[in-house]
Structures are given as structure tokens and as C-alpha cells.
# Entry
Amino acid sequence: MDALDSILVPADGSSPSIAALEHATALVADGHATIDVLYVDSPEELAASLVPDVRAELERSLSEAIARAQAQLGARLRRRDAIGDPLRVILETASEGHHDLIILGTHGRTGRLHSMLGSVAEGVVRNAPCPVLTVREASPGYQSFAERRHGRATIAEQLAHH
# Structure
């Protein structure tokens, strides 16, 4: 994995975004690459104002996941916060930061729900200036990079047992 210098991980605190951070952490654990975790607050979400308890829980989950990943990577992991359209901000950040890879979680919605809500993940895959790895939330029988490469529990699993 020496070709990877910088990975962008858009994250919102959801289970799929925490899984994406875990995959990124496992990919760079043995190398020198850095991870930029990008949290984007969209104006629509701010206007709709997620239920305060839900918003606080997502922020807590994201902060805990970042702290655990930072314990492994130190200064090679940075958090960036932005306000704007998530798709536009992710694509601009990836381009301006010359990231080698984007790893992002996806909820895996299809059909009518997908067409109603749109998909940031699909937009990133179609328009990104670099390769994109999409990650779903772990399901039974799923084995993460961390388990395969390092024989340890994932950050998401650590949070679930905490």
C-alpha cells in the first residue's frame, strides 16, 4: 500500500461511516499514509435540525471512533469540518487535497428510497477525482480489513462493547 499517501473518509457518525473509518485505519496502519476525516453539515440538515438527541449521538459516535483511530495513527489522522452540500464538499476536498482514495460508508439503499433521497455515495463514485471504496455496515459473516490484516476487533465493534 505504499502508493497511498492520503485517504479521505467522509463521516457523519453513522454505522457505515464508522465502518469506512475502520477500513481506512486498517489500510494505513502499517504504512505512512494519512487520513482526513471529513464531517459535512449540510444547510438542509441544519434547517431541518435533526432531533437534538440523534445529532448528539452521531457526534458522540464519530468523536469516539476518531479518538480510537487516532490512538493507533496519531497525527496521521486529522478531522476537518465543513458546511455545505455534502457531495460538492467531498468532491472539492478530495480534489484540492490530492487524496489518493476516498473511503465512504453507504447505507445501501436502492429502488424508490434511493431515488427519493438521492445518494451522496453514488455521486462521489461517479464524479470523484480518485478511486472510491464504498463500505456497508458490517453484517453477519462479514470480516473487516482489521480482522483480516491485524486479527483485532474493529473500531465499530469496540464502540459496541464499550
